[in-house]
Design goal:
The protein has 3 helices and 2 strands, in the order ββααα. It is mainly alpha-helical. The radius of gyration is 16 Å and the shape is elongated. The two termini are 23 Å apart.
């Protein structure tokens, strides 16, 4: 189980120029020095599995089942769905 807390930020506290304003793509993470994005090894492994199974013409439902069996989590720790896989 996970917990997420969000709040609205007043314009006076808006992010500085160059700050991240978008979600980080699946398969990447913020580096330890917070200066760049780097490959997330676990998510990268899940992406490679997805691509391998897609090339082998597995259905989206089969790929989702395989991801669950191998305990790969989707973004934010959510379970995989066919829609999330497609995106």
């Amino acid at each position: 189980m996970s917990l997420e807390w969000r709040r609205e930020v007043p314009e006076s506290e808006a992010a500085a120029h160059g700050a991240l304003s978008e979600d980080i793509p699946y398969g990447l993470r913020i580096s330890d020095d917070c200066q760049r994005l780097e490959v997330d090894p676990v998510e990268d492994k899940a992406l490679m599995l997805m691509m391998e199974l897609l090339v082998q013409d597995f259905s989206y439902s089969s790929i989702v089942s395989d991801l669950h069996e191998r305990a790969f989590a989707c973004e934010m720790g959510k379970p995989w769905t066919r829609v999330a896989l497609f995106k």
